[in-house]
């Protein structure tokens, strides 16, 4: 992997990029005037681009870079903070002050909404297996500023961790989080979800495993929630899950903790 900077990046960003290259055991190279698209073609390597305000990640041979943007999470989070409804918040039974473990950070949209719902006294921690995604989103959550101060605070409260949730859950204490949430990548992509295209190129696939859900039920105090395509075989694996349909193509599965 190559780590570089945007063309206009300052000295501090360059120093951080060099430090990141050391941490990831990657190659730091000065950007100069090189075109990222041409660089990708010439090297066939992934390129991580650090910027003063935001970072981008380009998987090998990718057409588009992965970058952070709150997108629809802005509207969803604002609706929640104004007392409105959100399908995920309802499926997870979230209220202010609760703690939520989001096992699949991705673009960070659900984590932002969950943070808005749990409020200043709550806690949202999001795990991400792909280190480049976690790094991009972590920086975005802290530095992307909206005109809405409460939304900024909700984003800043999300704590991201580079971790494989299968391994993380096995080591987590029992009953340590109110809710555990999974939103794994759909193997059958939603045609209209163009904003997910850069994420698909960089994301980790594998599907939701029964062993991970069992660990999540051990770790949660209240419930486990997962989001899946309505035609996913996962529904056959968890026939006891209560379905809460949110979209024509997907639904939330709810598994209550046995008390």
UniProtKB/TrEMBL annotation:
Source organism of the structure: Sinobaca qinghaiensis
Methyltransferase among keywords: yes
Protein name, per record: Putative SAM-dependent methyltransferase
InterPro entries per UniProt: 16SrRNA_methylTrfase_J, SAM-dependent_MTases_sf
Pfam families linked: SAM_MT (PF04445)
Entry keyword annotation includes Methyltransferase: yes
Keywords tagged on the record: Methyltransferase, Transferase
Lineage: Bacteria, Bacillati, Bacillota, Bacilli, Bacillales
Gene Ontology molecular function, alphabetical: rRNA (guanine-N2-)-methyltransferase activity
């Amino acid at each position: 992997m190559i780590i570089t900077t945007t063309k206009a990046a300052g000295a501090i960003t360059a120093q951080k990029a060099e430090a990141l290259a050391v941490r990831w055991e990657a190659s730091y190279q000065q950007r100069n005037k090189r075109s990222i698209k041409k660089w990708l073609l010439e090297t066939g390597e992934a390129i991580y681009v650090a910027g003063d305000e935001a970072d981008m990640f380009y998987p090998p041979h990718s057409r588009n870079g992965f970058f952070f943007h709150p997108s629809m999470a802005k509207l969803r989070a604002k609706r929640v903070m104004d007392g409105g409804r959100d399908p995920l918040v309802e499926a997870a039974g979230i209220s202010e002050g609760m703690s939520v473990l989001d096992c699949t950070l991705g673009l960070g949209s659900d984590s932002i909404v969950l943070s808005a719902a749990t409020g200043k006294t709550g806690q949202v921690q999001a795990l991400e297996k792909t280190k480049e995604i976690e790094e991009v989103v972590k920086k975005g959550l802290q530095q992307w500023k909206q005109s809405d101060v409460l939304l900024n605070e909700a984003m800043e409260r999300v704590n991201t961790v580079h971790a494989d949730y299968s391994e993380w859950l096995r080591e987590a204490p029992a009953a340590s989080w109110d809710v555990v949430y999974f939103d794994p990548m759909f193997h059958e992509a939603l045609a209209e979800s163009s904003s997910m295209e850069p994420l698909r190129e960089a994301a980790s696939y594998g599907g939701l495993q029964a062993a991970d859900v069992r660990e999540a039920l051990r770790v949660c105090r209240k419930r486990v929630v997962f989001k899946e395509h309505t035609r996913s075989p996962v529904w056959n694996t968890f026939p006891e899950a209560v379905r809460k349909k949110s979209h024509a193509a997907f639904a939330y599965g709810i598994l209550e903790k046995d008390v």
